[in-house]
Amino acid sequence: MHRHKLRFRQGAWAWCGAAAIMLTACGGGGGSGGNEATSGLRITNVRSLAAVSAEVFAGNEAVPNYRQEIRFDFEGDLGQMVGQSFHVSLDDPVGLFNPSPPITVSYADGKNHGIGMSGRAVSAAGDFSGNVRVNVCFDAACQRRVGGEPILVPYNVRVRAGLRIKAAPPPVAVQFGVWSQQVGGGFDPADPHIRYRVDELVDLPPGGRVTGMSLYFPGATGVRPPMPFTGGDRLVTLAPDDAAGLDWIPGPAPVGRYQLQLNVEGTAPINGTVNGIRASTLVNMEVLATPGKSVWLLPESINVVGQLPAQVSVSTINQRVLAADGTNYDSLSRVVYLPAGAGNADAGGIQWLSQVPCLVFNCIGYQPYGSGQVPLQVAWCVFRSDGTPPSPCLSAGRYQALAYLKSAAGVELATPLPVTLTLQPPAAASAARLSAR
């Protein structure tokens, strides 16, 4: 049995989650054998949900998962509602509905109260029929139910065995800073990768097929980040029997042990209608320390090429830094400009490399788990408001610098980020340009 609680105040609307009311989930126990209260307050005019009749695969909802409401009225001594805590519980042995449904109560005339119901995934296969009983009670243990008309939702449901994980994927061990060099850039088959054979991982219902597999890092709170925790993944067809497989590249992460969530999705028919099927399991992954590598710069160096005269004089790069120990390096500490000579031009004291604020336009894209990011700007010419460049701007040539990054605690990263700026001289007039004749 699942319960939800609402404390009502006179002269106000109350609904689930409102700050003005007390609303909490209640514990298990109780059952439908509680006594109906003889307080003179009764439920009447119940407008319940339609009977649930469905045939679905396990892991899917037999009831739509969007909110639907059971409506009802109170009659009798409505003054007893003032200061009263109402509790909602479900006798739902199959688990068709989400527990602790929210309740709305209006004191004005006792009319049109509501209990919000939404479906959830059914896990057990089998044939089920009966009634979900929705109880409105005066106490948390639901020993004193509000009397009157019972609130019943009939159901007749067949749940078929769906997509089933039959074997846990083998654990994965990778070296820090070795995998997924092309982070966020799609799948490169030339990179080292891990292969799963689908039929070794899952059982499918008759006529079923896998249409997608993906891996995510759930994180400490169980909330997934917006990007998959992989350097790339793709479904493949394996020879010689055309079996389905998943190739994937583990994404960058600090040294440590992790659990990835492997999601498998597919389709299978029920009475000629294609239905979705899904299942998930966990993959244990360990990132091992790599001797001599304490940090991973993504990218490991920056190379900017500009054309003179400057039509675009600024380039912004979102530099990512992943430390083996998980330290978050998120700002620029200092810049060492390499002197002229050995192929480098003379910058004349112009400081062409700096950090810029992390705005939406320059901080979007792939963000490895546990990494810091430092938006850097390379500027070789700054225009005045009238569109004319100031003097001096950098001349054509190559310029090099070493950028040292630091953490929020002020700890400077010993490994610098090499940055190279190459400015090309003005292009000669195109030979294809036609002269006036």
Question: Gyration radius, to the nearest Å?
Answer: 32 Å
Strand content: over 45%
Summarize the amount of helix as a percent range.
Answer: under 10%
Strand arrangement within the widest β-sheet reads: 3-1-8-11-14-6
What average pLDDT do the residues reach? 77
**Major β-sheet, in short?**
6 strands, mixed
Low-confidence stretches: 3-33, 181-185, 220-229, 428-437
- Helix run count: 2
Tell me, briefly, the overall form.
elongated
Number of strands: 31
Cα(first) to Cα(last) distance is 92 Å
Structural class: mainly beta
Describe the overall structure.
Strand 20 and strand 21 (243-250) form a beta hairpin. The protein is elongated and about 95 Å long. Residues 3-33, 181-185, 220-229 and 428-437 have low confidence and may be disordered. The relative contact order is 0.12. Helix content is 2%, strand content 46%. The chain has 437 residues and is mainly beta. The strands form eight sheets. The chain has a six-stranded mixed β-sheet with strand order 3-1-8-11-14-6, with no helix packed on it.
Jot down its keywords:
437 residues, mainly beta, 6-stranded mixed sheet, single chain, disordered N terminus, disordered C terminus
